[in-house]
Design a protein that fits this description.
single chain; 6-stranded mixed beta sheet; binds ascorbic acid; oxidoreductase; copper ion binding; EC 1.10.3.3
Length: 546
């Protein structure tokens, strides 16, 4: 079946957290319309760019784009940006049921509000390995009052201006900013604006809800909980997990989970649903929604103080949750027991020409002006640097991940990794100290075009000969986004079997902007004729005939 959507993207003034600012909407909304499809459907989105003075591109997060690598929506990698006034057609097959998302993948537009959810149902006659009465989706986000431009300009200037903490946390597009904060321009903030009234999730006592939770934060790692209710985690990034129960769910930008919640508490009142920023010391107020027991009034505030959530700095519970996520025993995708290539990606914060950057193996990633997919398919190899980045950094064995590096300089490059088609690749994400003493951050890494097996996590420095012996090669979960915890490492395995060019990057918007990413090419010779609609920038203009 075909699911056809017509979207118009434009700037509008909105008050998501009571503070009025310019946001990017789809058909007047942020989050944008939810895409609902069934496994095997073809999704068509005709996207009209009405931003007037700004390009756009949308990425279908978690959709592997098998056979349609040009529809991945990653500006600079798989397509040229969509110009103002143009309408671009995204067309792709959703080949696997699960919980996915979409969002802008151009500059820092995602944090301007261009995102939404994409839910793929099972084919007729198939059932999930769990039961529930109702199915709901929410997206968690953080929210900044400064424009994406101001932030991007700050991040690329000397002296460097960091984006700082978000002003609020949104649950399904609604947050609360304290309008009495000193310095707020008169008329900019209105605490009674219905646009910022809390999101309400209404439940019927006794019923069980599948809540699909996604995070598209620009920066924040989150803990999500519903006061007084446990949650059973049953799905992660489109894969069934061996169910486990949590009181609070840690969720990183780019991840999705399904949890089951039974409305089994005192039905005479409402409860708070809370998102809290963790992993960085912060004073961002928690995001609040109302878990409304029918027939109580949906706007009635719960009689209790919202739960304050876990301590921001506790790493252990977050690592423990990562370790708890395993494949559901009846849905194991067997993982290859050996790999053909091991790439160790050392994550470092660096300084280049006086500005702060992030690098992988000392290479701070920058996008070329001509998208790789087109360059590689049409032999425009002069459009990016041909020396590939290293599989392991020189001196990795002796690199001290626990201190600020003695030499913090890195180089900037738009080179990419070329993978042999159908080979099995291990990626070790190795975390390290930042430019600040005693500091290492959490980075959620997202791979386009694939799911990978998460074969291991560890603390400290990855040991090339010993740690692989402890990999989970029995029932590892498959995901498309995974955290690397402070001072730790995360090991992934995937098969390079999807012809195309795929971004792999930290899903923190400013970190990718600062160079925290890489690109993989595989099977470019198997990619069929590229649609001319993705062309029009850089050296691709030569393919457009009058
Ligand atoms: O990339 C980052 O830069 C700042 C800080 O390290 C430098 O100001 C920060 O907290 C980041 O995550």
């Amino acid at each position: 079946r075909i699911r056809h959507y017509r979207w118009e993207v434009k700037y509008e003034f909105k008050s998501q957290d009571c503070f009025r600012k310019l946001v990017i909407t789809i058909n007047g909304r942020t989050p944008g319309p939810s895409i609902r499809a069934q496994q095997g459907d073809t999704v068509i989105v005709d996207l009209k760019n009405s931003l007037l003075t700004e390009n756009v591109a949308i990425h279908w997060h978690g959709i592997r784009q098998i056979g349609t690598p040009w529809a991945d929506g990653t500006e600079g990698v798989t397509q040229c940006p969509i110009l103002p006034g143009d309408t671009f057609r995204y067309m792709f097959v959703v080949d696997r049921a699960g919980t996915y998302m979409y969002h802008a993948h151009y500059g820092m537009q995602r944090e301007a509000g261009l995102y939404g959810s994409l839910r793929v149902a099972l084919p007729d006659g198939e059932v999930e390995p769990f039961t529930y009465d109702h199915d709901r989706s929410i997206i968690l986000n953080d929210w900044y009052h400064k424009s994406a431009y101001e932030q991007a300009a700050g991040l690329s200037s000397v002296p460097f201006v960091w984006v700082g903490d978000p002003q609020s946390l949104l649950i399904q597009g609604r947050g609360r900013f304290n309008c009495s904060t000193p310095g707020i321009e008169a008329g900019k903030c209105n605490a009674t604006n219905p646009e910022c009234s809390p999101y309400v999730l209404t439940v019927v006592p006794g019923k069980t809800y599948r809540l699909r939770i996604g995070s598209l934060t620009a920066l924040a790692a989150l803990s999500f909980e519903i006061e007084g209710h446990n949650m059973t985690v049953v799905e992660a990034d489109g894969h069934y997990v061996e169910p486990f129960i949590v009181k609070n769910l840690f969720i990183y930008s780019g991840e999705t989970y399904s949890v089951l919640i039974t409305a089994n508490q005192d039905p005479s009142r409402n409860y708070w649903a809370v998102s809290k920023m963790v992993s960085r010391n912060n004073s961002v107020p928690t995001g609040l929604a109302i878990f409304n027991y029918y027939p109580n009034h949906p706007k009635r505030s719960p009689p209790t103080v919202p739960p304050s959530g876990p301590f921001w700095g506790a790493i252990e519970p977050r690592v423990n949750q990562s370790l708890a996520i395993k494949s559901h025993p009846n849905y194991i995708h067997p993982v290859p027991q050996t790999s053909d290539r091991v790439i160790i990606l050392l994550n470092t914060q660096n300084r280049i020409n006086g500005s702060v950057k992030w690098s992988i193996n000392n290479v701070s990633f920058s996008l070329p002006h001509t998208p790789y997919l087109i360059s590689l398919k049409h032999d425009l190899l002069h459009t990016f640097e041909q020396t590939p980045p290293p599989d392991v950094i020189n001196g990795y064995q002796t690199y001290d991940i626990n201190t600020v590096a003695p030499n913090v300089n890195a180089t900037s490059s738009n080179s990419l990794y070329r993978l042999k088609f159908n080979t099995t690749v291990d990626i070790i994400l190795q975390n390290a100290n930042t430019l600040n003493v005693n500091n290492s951050e959490t980075h959620p890494w997202h791979l386009h075009g694939h799911d990978f097996w998460v074969v291991g996590y560890g603390s400290g420095k990855f040991n090339v000969s010993e740690d692989p012996k402890r990999y989970n090669l029995v029932d590892p979960i498959m995901k498309n986004t995974v955290p690397v915890h402070p001072y730790g490492w995360t090991a992934l395995r995937f098969v390079a079997d999807n012809p195309g060019v795929w971004a792999f990057h930290c899903h923190i918007e400013s970190h990718f902007f600062m160079g925290m990413g890489a690109v993989f090419e595989e099977g470019i010779e198997k990619v069929t004729k590229l649609p001319s609609s993705i062309m029009g920038c850089g050296d691709t203009k030569r393919f457009i005939r009058p």
